[in-house]
Amino acid sequence: MDLRILNAEIQAFINNNIGKSISKLALQKNPFQDVEWISVLNQIEAKTKSKDKLPNWFVTKNIIYPSKISIEQTSSEKTAAYKASIVSGESLIDLTGGFGVDDFYFAKKTKTLVHCEINPELSSLVKHNFEQLNVSNITCYAGDSLTTLNTLNAKWDWIYIDPSRRNEAKGKVFMLKDCLPNVTENLDFYFTNSNAVLIKTAPILDISAGLSELKHVKTIHIVALENEVKELLWELHKGYSGDISIKTVNIVKDKTETFDFILNDDSKFPNFSSPQKYLYEPNSAIMKSGGFDEVSSSYNLNKLHKHSHLYTSTTLIPFAGRVFEIQNTFPYNKTEMKNHLEKNQANITTRNFPDSVESIRKKWKIKDGGNVYCFFTTDENNHKIVLICTKIS
After folding, report:
1. d(C-alpha 44, C-alpha 46), whole Å
2. Contact 104/115 with Cβ under 8 angstroms?
3. Structure confidence by residue, pLDDT tens digits, 29-63
4. How far apart are CA 374 and CA 366, in angstroms?
5. Are 350 and 376 in contact (CB under 8 A)?
6. CA atoms within 13 A on the CB side of 286
7. Are 158 and 194 in contact (CB under 8 A)?
8. Would you tell me the crossing angle of helices 145-152 and 183-193 to the nearest 10 degrees?
9. Is residue 166 helix, strand or coil?
């Protein structure tokens, strides 16, 4: 960590160039003799990335940023705040601290918090930033987190882990056993230090695959931001062997959409029907959860087809996803397409349909955009159909 980057003149230069082209700035001569030009450019690029993602960091003076990639990989403040709503108690230890965004919010819910980071330079940078952010209940430890856990020899209310999905030998990996640290291998040891473990994984991890590797899973949180799934959170409690709850969360600008259900609940059965007046498309968190029968049962909506994952009703209801009013429904064939959509403009979505959006656009010369929304899907009788809709929410 080079504290010379905090020079007032350099900080003013960084702030004055937020959002500017880094490639163009790189062609300029370094106006600062004591600091490498690449370091200054990195601060500009990383801080620019932080403007919307990490607003508390962005507005705080004398923050030092890691690489742009580290900023891209770290949690956003919105998802970190959600994680903090899960934990409680007096103490938490984060075994994979990183840039410390999650810990900033965990520290609001716990009395004491330990931030472990294997990279000593990043650890010292995070310690400096916590001081600028006026956070006083976080202690930073550099080095291997297992060693820190052994050395401290304490009982924690929560252990938090965000294992790295890059393995030096295997490159990018998708199974927990291949991540660093190896959670599956160390889980029994973690439970000697805490009765509650929260694990963050990438959204690409299949839920059934995660369950095959973990034990004592009580709740799985699927967290989306602006309808893009960002992370899965696995809540483990020592000795737990009951039903597993699925909590889906979609954090959008003016609200948070939630939908919860019990995994593998055999009492939930979907109803099916042809398209009615309204069409419902679940948000991305629900789509990731696989709780499609539960959506039909809980909202009292009819599915169009077992595999279409679109729902319909005669009356309008609040829903965790996009809602449309159906203006027209017709079979997918040459005559109907020429009459209704060929050479027109529309937003296209496919669900359980053999053709891609791109091929449909090309074949029927449909331009993107506008106020018309078209769903190409399959109905309960296995017929290919098209629904022309207007968006409600």
Report:
1. 6
2. no
3. 999 988 999 999 999 999 999 999 999 999 999 99
4. 11
5. yes
6. 23
7. yes
8. 20
9. strand
For helices 37-53 and 8-16, the axis angle rounded to 10 degrees is 60
* CB contact set of 126 (below 8 Å; sequence gap of 6+): 97, 98, 99, 100, 115, 117, 140
* Distance between CA atoms of residues 92 and 311, nearest Å: 42
Q: What are phi and psi of 216, to 5 degrees?
A: 65, 30
User: d(Cα 225, Cα 219) in Å, to the nearest integer?
Assistant: 19
3-state secondary structure of 1: coil
Determine the 3-state secondary structure of 59 from DSSP. Answer: helix
Tokens of 366: 């449909």
Distance CA 195, CA 211 (A): 18
Q: Write the DSSP assignment of 337-369 as a string of letters.
A: HHHHTTT-B-EEEESS-SS-HHHHHHHHTPBS-
286-308 CB burial, b ≥16 within 10 A, e <16: bbbbbbbbbbbbebebbbbbeeb
248 half-sphere exposure, CB direction, 13 A CA radius = 28
Helix (H, G, I), strand (E, B) or coil at 159: strand
- CA atoms of 31 and 11, how far apart (whole Å): 13
Task: Give the predicted TM-score (pTM) of the model.
Answer: 0.94
Q: CA-CA distance, 165 to 175, in Å (whole number)? A: 8
Cα first-last separation, the chain: 47
Interatomic CA distance for residues 199 and 231, integer angstroms: 10
Query: Which H helix or E strand runs over 69?
Result: helix 68-73
> Which single residue is written with the structure tokens 């990731």?
288
Q: For the chain (length 393 residues), average pLDDT per consecutive 10?
A: 92 96 94 94 95 96 91 93 97 97 98 96 96 98 95 96 74 76 94 98 94 97 97 98 98 94 91 97 98 96 96 98 98 97 96 97 97 97 97 91
Nearest 5°: the CA angle 373, 378, 382 is 160
Strand 217-225 and strand 245-251: pairing?
Answer: parallel
Contact 217, 254 (CB under 8 A): no
The C-alpha atoms of residue 254 and residue 389 are separated, in whole angstroms, by: 24
Rg from Cα positions in the chain: 25
